[in-house]
Sequence to fold (1179 residues):
Amino acid sequence: MYLKKIELNGFKSFANKTEFLINPGITAIVGPNGSGKSNIIDAIRWVLGEQSAKALRGSKMEDVIFAGSEGRKQKNYAEVSLVFDNSQGKLAIDYSEVNIIRRIFRDGESEYYINKTPCRLKDIHELFMDTGVGKEAYSIISQGQVEDILNSRPEEKRIIFEEAAGIVKYKNKKKESLKKLEETEQNLVRLDDILYNLEQDLPQIQQEAVKAKEYKNIKEKLKGLEVALVLEKINNLEKTYKETDKQIEEKRLLKEEVEKAIEITNSNKEELIKNIKDIELELNNLRDQELQLIKDLEGLKYNLELNKRQLSDGKKKVENLKFENLELEEYLRQVTLKIEELDKKLKVNQQELQNNKKLINNDEEQSVKLKIEIDQFKEQLEIYKEEIIEILNDLATIKNELKNLENNKGKIINECHRKERELISFQERSNQLREKLHNKQREIEEINTLIDRQNNLKEDLLEQISVIKNNIEMEKDRLERQKSKVNELKSKITALTNLEMSYAGYSLGPKETLKKFKGHPSLEGAIAQLLTVPEHLTTAIEVALGSSLQNIVVKDEFFAAEVIEYLRKNKLGRATFLPLNIIKGTPLNLADPDIIGVASNLVHYEKKYSGIMDFLLGRIIIVKNLDIGLKVAKKYNYKYKIVSLEGDVLNVGGAITGGNYNGKSLGLIQRAQEIEGLKIELKKEEDGLAQIQRALTKGEEEYKKFSEQLEQLHHYLGMLQGDKNNKYQEILLMEQEIKSIKGHIELIKGEKKIFENDLKELEEKISQTLKNEKVKEDEKQRITLSIKEINELIIKKNNFYESLKSKIVSKQITIASLEQEYHSIKKQLTMLNEEKRRTEIKFKENGENINLTVEEIGRLQKLIDDLSNENLKLEKLKFKINEQQVNHHVLKREVDEKIQQAEDKLKELEQSKEILLTKLNTLNLKKSKILLELDGYTEKLLSEYYLTVGEAKELNYPEVDEKEAIKEINILREDLKGLGEVNLGAIEEYKKIKGKIDFLKEQKNDLTRAKLDLKKIILEMDRQMASQFEESFEKIKVYFNEVFQKLFNGGRGYLRLTDPENLLESGVEIFVQPPGKKLQSMTLLSGGEKALTAIALLFAILKTKPSPFCVLDEIEASLDEANVDRFGAFLKEMSKEIQFIIVTHRKGTMESADILYGITMEENGISKQISVNLEKRVG
Fold:
């Protein structure tokens, strides 16, 4: 077997469909970094079933689909296929060529095919199992995997040795067998529990079944009495109902007479109301006229009052204007006097202003001379000030220096104190840390205790989860079995219903008639469809009717003739028709204890079919068995047809038909009954299914709850472990801090000593600076005295100068005041003259207004006289309208009295009607109650006994005395109560449990045998795996040493089992001794030596169990040129037996290749192949 072809389409960078034809020998794949070489190796791994996107260098599996480039759209799926030559039959499949295909779509859906036939991933794994080919086998070695083989733990190295030994399939089978064994043991435990529970319940169920039978007998007697009592009550209620109906009719007639009287009285009342409305209309008109007059009078009075007020206002206005003119004359006289006074005051002000201006000129000349003397003294003062500023600057410098020295002294003292405090603080901190360190260690001990406690809880939870999981599995098994039962019942019902719908079992004529005329109003149906037969009578009725079951009931003979013509015309056989309007029967009326009954009375059907049923079954007697039948036939002188429950027939005249009855040939009634029975059973099984589903849901909820608790516990344990680690970290930090504090204390002591020396030097500098300060202070005192003398002279001169200036300012203020007073007087004169002019104009206007107002007063007096005369006329008209209103009110009172008389009569009639209505309502209520009671008893018959009133009466229950019946019913009920709680399903349940126990015991025996068989199989597989692994390991060990010596040009390689006594689980260790070195472990080798050792191991395994092909991805990358050449030579030698596909960058490897495939990226992001057949070129 070898790999013939690799085909990629849309896989990673291979956007286009790309084929690689692979021949036996060595195929090398070369190309620059990033060109997509390793994508070919990923494709091989992926098609063989790799499920980890990370192993394929992606984040999710959809990443293997071509994602698009600058010039290409992304693809929606990726597909890879491998074609194998299987001509030697190494793969367990009957094909000489095997094509493995895997396809993935962007929605995440994956498909697998073997030779274009859809399959499962498991099928692909099983196909290549123990061939050395697979996603995790030694046939595919990717980049970095070489060193992973050597760096892995001994137990992990074992995996490739197991693949080489061919025991992987045994391990998988053992794993499945162990799982089956565990499931078998769990099933046995569950079976024991179920059997124990069922056997514990059986005696109780048996007792309940006996009690249930007794209960049913009492219940049947009770039913007969209760139905008879209900019928008695129904008869009494029907009589009362008829009497009540008669009383209702009488009261209804009386009510109609009263209603006629009410109608006549209402008519008279309406006529009176119409008259009173006319009177009220006339009254309203009079009121409107009166209101209009009142409105006109009020308007007239208002105008009269308004004119009187205007007249009064005019007279007052004339008086006011005359008074105002007198006041204006007085005001004009006073203004004239004030103007004369202001003219005199203005002349005095002008004289004073001239005198003050002459005096101020002399004072200003004297002040200028004094200002020049003051300025000269100030210049001398400035010179002294400059000198003292210089001295003050020197003093400030000295004081600053002193201050800085004092500050430095204070700082050094503070630093000394601070260092003292730091020393104390560090010592206290050291003590605190030691105490915290002790507390943390104690906390870690507490956490360890808590972790142990939580681990115990975790174990308990795991045990509970395991129990719940087992219960869930058991419920799932029950659910599947129940589903199978339900589906089986549904299938049976569907099959039987289809037979019923297709009229299977009917002859051609009836079948075609029922099909053709289905739904026709004149077609009632076949006899088998129109009657319902109790199950125990099925055989008897089928035999009694025979082929008449297929007789078709129609409404009349005309439709029957039409159908017969249709059957004859289409040659569809014959049929018998029973017209409802013609067929009548006379049933037997026998009361014989030896017979079960007349057949027509024992079956159920609609009342309209009673004539037909009496015709067919009314003269057929049903008996228990043939012996009783013979006795009855003899009694009635063989006049009637008699049928036994077993199907034996005694015909009229004495002929007997009997033997084994097989109703399957017809079974029309049995089929309908079987469908109903199956439906009932289906309902019961579906209820059971729902109950199991609920139990399963509850179990799954419990499993979820405990799983969540376990997850929380894991989380809490993680938190505790994290807390513990944090506290360890804190302890480490505290120890480091204590060590650091010790160093700080020593450093502080040294710094304190330096500060004490600095303090001594500062005190000496402060003493010298104080001496310099005293010299400057003396010089400052001398200059200050000189400044004081000059300041005193300046102050005297300034005082005189300021006095003179003040005097000048005072005179200037006086002049300004006089000027202001002058302008004020001028302004007042102007204003008074203007005021005088305005007053004179106002006096003139008032005289004119007085004349106009006197004229208006004359006009208003004439208008008032006219309005008074009009008011008198309107008052007379109002009195006349009031007289008419009084007359109409008298007439209205008379009509109102007549209306009241009519209303009193109506009230009496309405009361009579109300009394009749109350009586009618009472009777109707009584009637309704009777109907309600009748409905109640009818409903009781239906709900409790499944009988209509008609059916109950037809059963001819004997008349009962109510008191006696109630007494007997109470006795029977007491008997029922005495039985206590009764389980009616116990009879059937007992049968089922007994059958279930027998079935489960058989299952337990089967499971016990299966458990022993599985243990034998596992033991045999362990022996086989140990033998194969040991044999294979010894071969690999020898080959490893040989290959190692060839690749290293000497030295030796050695393989060792970590636990030789446990061959099935022992790890594998590798020891090597390169030429000129000691025997050492793999961890001490260089990178190149490790790679070459791993290659040696790979070739040793391939020599032990050659793989059909081997894929290598740059495994020689870390080798030097000499080692690459040896690797290439060995690869060439191995290629005679094994097909190699290798991705490489090394020249030596390329030279050993038979076919060279180059991978390039001419278009960004898209890989393209270039192939070279080196063998042909050499040829």
